[in-house]
Design brief:
73% of the residues lie in helices and 0% in strands.
Length: 324
Amino acid sequence: MAAQLMISIEERSNKSNLALDRKHSIIDGLELTRMRMGKQFRDAMAFGMVAALCVIALCGAASAAAEPDVVVPTALDRGFAGLYNLDFTGAQKDFSAWKSQHPDDPVGPVSEAAGFLFSEFNRLGVLEGQFYENDDAFTARSKLKPDPAVHDHFQAAIDQAEKLAHSRLSKNGKDQDALFALTLSSGLQADYAALIEKRNLASLHYAKEASMWAQQLLAVCSNCYDAQLATGFSKYIIGSMSAPVRWLMRIGGLPGDKRGGIADLQLTAQRGHYLAPFARILLAIAYVRDKDKARALELLSSLRIQFPGNTLFPREIARLQTAH
């Protein structure tokens, strides 16, 4: 991005010698910034989006607007509850049932893809919270060795979801399920690229796609609160970075707003459906990063009660309680 900006500046600067001098000054400053940031900047960009998208994949149907207090659980409801409880086998059975009942719904296969990815994350230890406490921990993560068979199942589900979604959008450009499925699909691929393959630039490409689809969804469904999670945590992370990094991120189409990001997460936590618990998880991560251990423990404790099958919550609680 810095290189593209320098090229643009050079083209416009031929108008006068004064402009030429200013160009050299700006280029020198950009180059110095780039040299200072280097790999750290690229990892920070990926983390800013991936930390937010790491969990967005565990969404449900696109109509994630506010729902009645009392609803009959669908196969998708049961499937995502299974993912929260780390019951990946049971979740996949429920997602398969939803696909059989709704063969033209792209949310079915993208939900299956989420199940494949997060079962792999769980196997490889990617879901452990210490990786997201600070930028250094994220940057130091290792490249992992995925299961080829799981990757094939994951990619096949992604391909099916995108095919169904684009087919529906060709008939109705405002189809909420299709827009949400594409948001999830891009987010899942961003997660796989960054958190398993450690391909940060590829992850950034998918992350920007996810944000684009989420914005299109919110444009036609302002109360699809689950979609706020696509950008909320990334806005928080980017807004927490240094001014030069925030500036370069904004040039690349990734604005930061720490308070706005927290507000988005709180809205999803309060009024979301499938993603309300995950908004609380991301808020807990934000509180840990901001050294607010008490609020993080409060959220994690409520999640442990709601999802007793998830062994990650008690481990994170114990880790925070023993940390200095």
